TrEMBL record:
SUPFAM superfamilies: Activating enzymes of the ubiquitin-like proteins. Residues 16-172 form the THIF-type NAD/FAD binding fold domain. It holds the Pfam family ThiF. InterPro entries: ThiF_NAD_FAD-bd (IPR000594), Ubiquitin-activating_enz (IPR035985). This is THIF-type NAD/FAD binding fold domain-containing protein. GO terms for molecular function: ubiquitin-like modifier activating enzyme activity. The lineage of its organism: Bacteria, Candidatus Woeseibacteriota. It comes from Candidatus Woesebacteria bacterium GW2011_GWB1_39_10.
Length: 316
């Protein structure tokens, strides 16, 4: 079968590109289902199996229950989408085991629901990027309960990396309610025997993947509109705290001003707010649903001191 859908859309260099996708849960699998193909090599990596509680929000259905998620995603792309089997490699191993085989990667997509893994992937991209071969990465995940999610795009890890993004966002990356492995098996909330359906979770995944795909595309085929390092936040339900801002900082001033401007423009609803300072000297930065993502761009590179002067939250 040929992939007629993308004829004339994919640049011819696509067949020279190697794309590595780590994590084939609902976000990773939706990503590979949505991005145009085919590439020279699509590498799918996930040690886990598809379970009944994953199915509702996962592009793969009941017929793949019990399959390794990477194998299942490959099977889906080959059978349902017509991608040549020879252009996909599936691994039921971890990122640690598989990444070393693909130092030629042109893009790493990290859809693993845990921050230490994301940092490890970041460090690998940093170490293996050279002046001749840069390895951009994109990180995507949803928050527990499907309240929203975020995408972090790192076009040149040796200039600005995932850890820079975390630091810029604040030392306390997420508030206690969201701390730890954000997005970790959100389907599993409730008991293992009776997984609970979470309203809006599928919507969060769709929203996050729809941010990831075009960014990934632009990082693979940089034209005259290169991707800047950025974090995109989407809120689906209620107010979500997405960052902490130090008391008395330049960022705080900028954000307070920005929120004031929104109010003056008589926008029907304000979509960001700042909470009172906490005992540790941080204000919370909260966002809520709007039709476009909240964006943070341009932060300082690590390990230089992070003054925070370069950052601004804005609407896309
Ligand atoms: Zn960094």
């Amino acid at each position: 079968m040929q992939t007629f859908r993308t004829h004339g859309l994919l640049p011819s260099e696509a067949l020279k590109k190697t794309v590595v996708v780590l994590g084939l849960g609902s976000v990773g699998a939706s990503f590979v289902a949505d991005i145009p193909y085919e590439f020279g090599m699509l590498v799918l990596v996930d040690p886990g199996k598809l379970k009944v509680e994953n199915v509702e929000r996962h592009p793969l259905g009941k017929s793949h229950l019990g399959w390794n998620k990477a194998d299942a995603a490959k099977d889906f792309l080959v059978k349902e989408k017509g991608v040549p089997a020879g252009r996909i490699k599936a691994f039921s191993q971890t990122d640690k085991e598989v990444l070393p085989l693909f130092t030629n990667a042109d893009l790493v997509v990290c859809a693993i629901d845990d921050k230490p893994s994301c940092r490890r992937v970041n460090d690998w991209c940093f170490e293996h990027s050279t002046p001749k071969h840069n390895i951009p990465a994109i990180y995507g995940g949803v928050y527990p309960l499907g309240l929203g999610g975020e995408v972090i795009a790192i076009p040149t890890p040796r200039e600005v990396c995932y850890r820079c993004a975390e630091r810029q966002r604040a030392t306390k990356v997420l508030p206690p309610a969201h701390a730890g492995n954000y997005g970790l098996n959100p389907e599993l909330l409730g008991s293992a025997d009776s997984p609970k359906a979470i309203p809006a979770l599928k919507a969060s995944i769709t929203a996050i993947v729809s941010e990831m795909v075009p960014l990934a595309w632009r990082m693979l085929f940089p034209g005259d509109d290169p991707v800047t390092p950025q974090i995109r936040f989407r809120a689906l339900e209620g107010w979500i705290e997405v960052a902490r801002i130090p008391r008395g900082s330049t960022e705080l001033e900028i954000e307070v001003r920005e929120i004031g401007i929104h109010k003056k423009l008589l926008l029907a609803e304000n979509n960001a707010k700042i909470t009172p300072v906490d005992p540790e000297g941080y204000h919370g930065y909260l966002i809520r649903r709007q039709p476009w993502p909240k964006l943070v761009v341009q932060w300082s590179r690590c390990p230089s001191p992070h003054g925070g002067q370069n950052v601004q939250f804005s609407d896309l």
